[in-house]
């Protein structure tokens, strides 16, 4: 909190919404009438929303509908609940894929600040939030903003999310603007490949929660033949990740590779890497924490003014 302003970092992922302390599926189901099952229910402007039952469909424009606004309210409520607050003046610290920031930053900020305040209920608790301001930062970079001094020499940063993989160079502790790339090559594309492989081999569909568990942990309580098939496809997909990194001139002998984001578990579970040259940050909330850090620094530079 700075000058009575509560800074809340939100990583608006395609698969999950992350804050500094929470993570939940980026899914919204809207109802005009009160639904029977009310787990994670948010009420806003006389409509009912169940949060996090399914992942939101991948769309490059996060402002195409109201879903990410509703998910933002849910994220704020979760953070305020942890801080034992129900009323706050909030500064939102959020992010966008590296190469989309410059073009979408202003419109995403306007989207998040479309209302001066919001009154809503989440999980039977009433909240009143005043939106003071917002900052939009580049994904990936924010996850390592607190440790730039470690990036001596030539370094490649790969932020593997659900929908995209963001790649950038950080050389001698400074990001290189001209060498930032965004690929539509995240964990969701791996899940699609796994489902297609299982259908082709066994003519069956496996519940998404099982696939997510294998991707996240490397195993699940299923038969060996299914587990072997899933792992084989995931391994092929990880090989594809490294092919794309090499297309952007990745060379293990000449640089270090830093991997962040929810997709970092795929690298950990489905390939062997040189741990002296490839550093994996498994903290899925790292970007949201970085957003808060960068926003706090900015506010302090401005003397607390937004």
Count of structural domains: 2
The first-to-last residue Cα distance is 13 Å
The major pleated sheet works out as: 7 strands, mixed
* N-to-C SSE string, H for helix and E for strand: EEEEEEEHEHEEEEEHHHEHEH
State the fourth-level CATH superfamily of the largest domain. ATPase, nucleotide binding domain
The largest sheet has its strands arranged as 1-8-10-9-6-7-5
* CATH class bucket of the largest domain: Alpha Beta
The share of residues in extended strands comes to 25-35%
**Uncertain stretches:** none
From the 3D coordinates, which CATH architecture of the largest domain would you assign?
2-Layer Sandwich
> How would you sum up the global shape?
globular
The tally of strands reads: 15
SSE inventory with pairings:
Layout: E1 6-9, E2 11-12, E3 16-18, E4 23-25, E5 28-31, E6 41-44, E7 47-51, H1 67-82, E8 87-96, H2 101-112, E9 117-122, E10 125-138, E11 154-160, E12 165-171, E13 174-183, H3 187-202, H4 208-217, H5 224-247, E14 256-260, H6 264-270, E15 278-280, H7 286-301
Parallel strand pairs: 1-8, 8-10, 11-14, 14-15
Antiparallel strand pairs: 2-3, 3-4, 5-7, 6-7, 6-9, 9-10, 11-12, 12-13
Helix pairs in contact: 3-4, 3-5
